[in-house]
Amino acid sequence: MTDRPDTTADGMRLAQAGMLLNMVLAVVKVLAGLVGHSYALIADGIESSADIFGSLIVWSGLRVARRSADNAYPFGYGKAEALAAAGVGLMLVGAAIGISIEAIREIMIPHHAPAPFTLAVLVGVVLIKELFFRRVSRVAAASGSTAVSADAWHHRSDAITSAAAFIGISIALIGGPGWEQADDLAALLAATVIVYNGVKVMRPALQELMDRAPGEQLLTRVEHAAHSVTGVLATEKLKMRRAGTAYYVDLHVQADPTLSLHQAHILSGMVKSAIRSAVPEVSGVLIHMEPYEDVRT
User: Fold this and answer.
1) CATH for 216-291 (3.30.70.1350, 3.90.226.10, 3.90.230.10, 3.30.70.20)
2) Going edge to edge, which strands form the sheet with 234-243?
């Protein structure tokens, strides 16, 4: 089985790098949280552990999506990207729920104030994760991949939880006795942000899985490309759907009724070529040829 063009190789490499990074950060944050009496930092480490599986899902989804179409999947495997993105979104929401439950339990139980050294750990995590988020986001924008975009937001959510933990621990240390719960409240705040990011990741993935039409700008580009072909008198019933980084077009083209079947076939091929040339995002085009009927007569 052959692969699709290597448009997602950078995303796959970054997903692998993200797994290694999250393994290291998860261990560092959990150990620092246990030693430094910070549940916000432990919660942050748990979220990083979930990130490991999130990056694994993204890598697997991209790997499957690169496969070429075959008899079993004639439209290709592109939707594996959307499935991976939806899976990452669900993991984010699940992690947020778990963090919230544990943070509420910690609020109700008296405990020590966090140790000051945990702040230094969090500063380093925020910087690393934000830089990684921006790197992955650039690749997501270049490839148009929902899965890579989901992976990027997974890194951003980790940076946000670390920033929230930093704020909570700072308040607990500055406030002194009686302010220990600020650390746990920060974990709750982080969980809220994670839920928001999870929903933000899932929405475009679910829209792709439901074959939602792309934006008006892309539809207009396809129409203009079709009308640029000599012999095309009108177009109608334009439909587009997305699968991974590729789009599939279904279009009715009206032409001179006196054209022979052979001539109509040639014209449809010219329309296909024009669309794929003008809109590189389009992978497949299905043209329905129809006789032109002037409604003004």
Assistant:
1) 3.30.70.1350
2) 234-243, 246-255, 282-291
Tell me which H or E stretch contains 265.
Answer: helix 261-278
Q: Are 285 and 249 in contact (CB under 8 A)?
A: yes
The answer on pLDDT for 112 being more than 50 is: yes
**pTM, full prediction:** 0.69
Q: How far apart are CA 235 and CA 220, in angstroms?
A: 12
- Fold for 9-209, please state it: Alpha-lytic protease prodomain-like (1.20.1510)
Give residue-wise pLDDT tens across range 197-208: 788 888 888 888
For residue 185, the surrounding DSSP H or E stretch is helix 182-209
Which residues make up the CATH 1.20.1510.10 domain(s) of the chain? 9-209
Residue range 215-230: mean pLDDT, rounded: 92
